[in-house]
């Protein structure tokens, strides 16, 4: 499981970076989304995966008797997902506006701010 | 998208989904669920309604601007966060609870109100975004 | 509980933002709330600062969960200073925005977003938890995205795309670094991380994590090879927005770098060499960039990059005096850079352009205003006794101690180029004979404004100019503050103990 996840994370990072390096705005956003998902999975993987043992103490005992799944990575991922939800919806509105105003989705033609004036 | 099946179904689905979202919201404290997921489900209910009946009808149904839910939700969450400091001089965000559980809802405490705030903010934000995108398309 | 004060700066801005959202329909009420609220936040920041100054580091555990399990908020001298500076810069920008931002932008929630931005800044300075820092960073960038795109002009949107992409990319790298750090240590509390990272035997992995943090924060702070988004975007929004960006946003990156590299990744010769090299190159490249530009607000953007080098340099030298120099520089820089962009806004109001080719003759027409603008312009150079001089002095002295003449060369070069650039601005914009510019229709020139608006534009500039004069002439006090911060940062035991309690007592 860990091995598969590691490969998947590598793929997500690689394809995210590849998409970011394309010139199209839409692909740029897709690249950012893939990268974000890769980072979320990385937290999940590095937080040590423990299957089927929720971090809940049984009613009759005072502390954990067994190995348990760490709840922190899941909380982190949830937070990161919520944040990326906000960022991505903003990004989509932004590229839509940018496409309407600049009339191109080619990043190479969005160079007026770097022009010498 | 305006098929008669979807339109008829959406009228029944809207209250059902809203009820389900509140169920998810309330169950969130001990089981999977919570304000964020509940809020998303509630906004999906309205989006589905908008798909089937047109944006105008959904807006008439909601009556107010969904953006108004944002400050309301923020205020609820904010008050829930500040309440422990005001009531019992504990650090902010400490969970304070009523001693006895209420019927149906279960234990009531500041965390529940915080979640309700999140629920409202999520509905407000996602509906505002989706309505804006749909309008400008 | 006295510890409650730690969260007051955050709470004030959150409450303000909520109130501002409620009064969405009335710009007039929004203006009043924002103006009064900024004063309130300044008072709260002064209160927090004086408490921390007198009683030492304050901590509060959010949710009453014991550290290192809960989220800790820590106000040490460094954080309290940054909160105070945010409040000072925030009050100036708030008034300047009320005076200059167009109604169309105010209608779309400019002021609430501005306070969300200040909320995020205060949170980032006060938090003691690395993941919480990530969350505050996201709040900052989301609100800054809205501020930079508000208005939707062509150049704004183009700038926003670049700003947006690289800042999200930085966040992803930061998140990756947090993930690796959590995998290594199983903790997120910065004080706890400091102890646990020191105990890790696999130094290679620690170094890789440190580099990830360096890149993530480096993009946000705009250090040498990672700065390209800054000059492409900072001149596009209205001057009030540029002012808060230029003054505060890059400094959050610097703050995070200093915090992480004095607390968690300490005493690594390899990293120090990298940071020093980057600092030297940042100074050099930023200065060169400023040299060739013609648009004044673009020049100021490059000056920001160049001067980030001074702060990183202090971190790289890693002695108490050098870090004190960096802190002094941050204090000076936040005030002056905010003011510089407001000055560019004023020049734009006077003439209707920011291009040096067309500007000119401001001194002949408005001698008093020119004198007012002289203060921030020459403070940034650091002509003694103005404020930029003192920190450079201690940075050069410290560089001499390690006999790194290459660094001294970079400092002097950057300072000299800054002097040259500012002198050029002074000559071209103020002294040169003014051209007859075509009058722009419907443009509200400065002399056409009502007295109330004029005060709202000039007041903040005068306020910040006064503060930078104080930093220059009262350098003794600031130096004392900077030295205290430097001592606290170098002896991170104090920070750790105030968060985790006395470690020695624990088994």
From TrEMBL, chain A:
Chain segments annotated as coiled-coil in the UniProt record? none
InterPro entries on file = CPA3_antiporter_subunitC, NUOK/Mnh_C1-like
State its location(s).
Cell membrane
Listed A to Z, the keywords are:
Cell membrane, Membrane, Transmembrane, Transmembrane helix
Q: How does it sit in the bilayer?
A: Multi-pass membrane protein
Name the residues that span the membrane.
Answer: 6-21, 28-49, 75-95
Gene Ontology annotations for the cellular component aspect, listed alphabetically: plasma membrane
Q: What is its main location?
A: membrane
Question: What's one Pfam family the UniProt record gives for this protein?
Answer: Oxidored_q2
Which NCBIfam families does this one have?
PRK09094.1, PRK12659.1
Give the UniProt family note: Belongs to the CPA3 antiporters (TC 2.A.63) subunit C family.
- What name has this protein been given in UniProt? Cation:proton antiporter
Q: Which organism is it from?
A: Planktosalinus lacus
UniProtKB/TrEMBL annotation, chain B:
Topology in the lipid bilayer = Multi-pass membrane protein
Which cellular component, as a GO term, is one annotated location?
A: plasma membrane
Q: Locate the Na+/H+ antiporter MnhB subunit-related protein domain: which residues?
A: 5-127
What subcellular compartments does it reside in?
A: Cell membrane
- List membrane-spanning regions: 12-30, 36-55, 67-87, 107-133
**Annotated keywords:** Cell membrane, Membrane, Transmembrane, Transmembrane helix
Coiled-coil ranges per the record?
A: none
Q: Does the keyword Cell membrane apply?
A: yes
User: Record's Pfam families?
Assistant: MnhB
Signal sequence range: none
Annotated family: Belongs to the CPA3 antiporters (TC 2.A.63) subunit B family.
Q: Which NCBIfam families match?
A: PRK12509.1
Its name, as the record gives it, is Na(+)/H(+) antiporter subunit B
UniProtKB/TrEMBL annotation, chain C:
Q: Name one GO biological process term.
A: ATP synthesis coupled electron transport
Lineage, highest ranks first: Bacteria, Pseudomonadati, Bacteroidota, Flavobacteriia, Flavobacteriales
Q: Which organism is it from?
A: Planktosalinus lacus
Q: Which residues cross the membrane?
A: 6-25, 32-53, 73-96, 108-127, 133-152, 164-184, 204-230, 242-267, 273-292, 299-318, 324-348, 368-386, 406-427, 457-475
Entry keyword Protein transport: no
Family matches, as PANTHER family:
NA(+)_H(+) ANTIPORTER SUBUNIT D1, NADH DEHYDROGENASE
| Record domain NADH:quinone oxidoreductase/Mrp antiporter transmembrane: where | 129-418
The membrane topology noted for this protein in its Swiss-Prot or TrEMBL record is: Multi-pass membrane protein
UniProt similarity note? Belongs to the CPA3 antiporters (TC 2.A.63) subunit D family.
Q: Name one GO molecular function term.
A: NADH dehydrogenase (ubiquinone) activity
Name this protein carries in UniProt: Cation:proton antiporter
- Any one Gene Ontology cellular component term annotated for this protein: plasma membrane
Where does it live in the cell? Cell membrane; Membrane
**UniProt cross-references to InterPro entries, sorted A to Z:** CPA3_Na-H_Antiporter_D (IPR050586), NADH_UbQ_OxRdtase (IPR003918), ND/Mrp_TM (IPR001750)
Q: Which UniProt keywords apply?
A: Cell membrane, Membrane, Transmembrane, Transmembrane helix
* Top-level lineage group: Bacteria
Q: What Pfam families does the record point to?
A: Proton_antipo_M
